[in-house]
Write a structure and sequence with these properties.
single chain; mainly beta; five-stranded antiparallel sheet
Length: about 130
């Protein structure tokens, strides 16, 4: 069992509350309506952001295999010989970096449809799997 955990703070609490319920939230500018990934704090114009739901559907943009020691066994690839980290474009437009646990990296391809799932490491966090 890994000691790896993720912890919330006041700013991230809505995101983690939704994730615990199996819902993905992203950010939207309250002035211009642009959408951003969850970690974005302000609009590029400096305006405040609000939390809004995302479908969890995504497209794989890129990925890499980290052959170093995994931070958690749940994040290993299908072969168990590394962790796969990907960049996905959400259906709504923003890009997210996320783990792709249990996948065979030789089967991944650019443009592959992905779907969100949630893994728990103290808090529930989004991970993506082939749709």
């Amino acid at each position: 069992m890994s000691d790896f955990t993720i912890e919330r703070n006041e700013a991230s609490a809505p995101f983690f509350d939704a994730a615990r319920e199996g819902r993905l939230l992203i950010r939207r500018c309250t002035v211009c309506g642009r959408l951003y990934p969850p970690q974005q704090r302000r609009c590029v114009d400096g305006e405040p952001l609000e939390w809004v739901p995302a479908t969890g559907a995504a497209t794989l943009i890129s990925w890499a295999v980290d052959h170093g020691a995994a931070v958690a066994p749940d994040l290993l690839s299908a072969a168990g010989d590394g962790s796969v980290i990907g960049v996905v474009e959400l259906e709504e437009g923003p890009w997210m970096n996320a783990a792709l646990p249990g996948v065979d990296p030789t089967q991944l391809r650019d443009g592959m449809p992905m779907r969100v799932e949630f893994a728990v490491f103290g808090e529930a966090v989004p991970v993506f799997l082939p749709a």
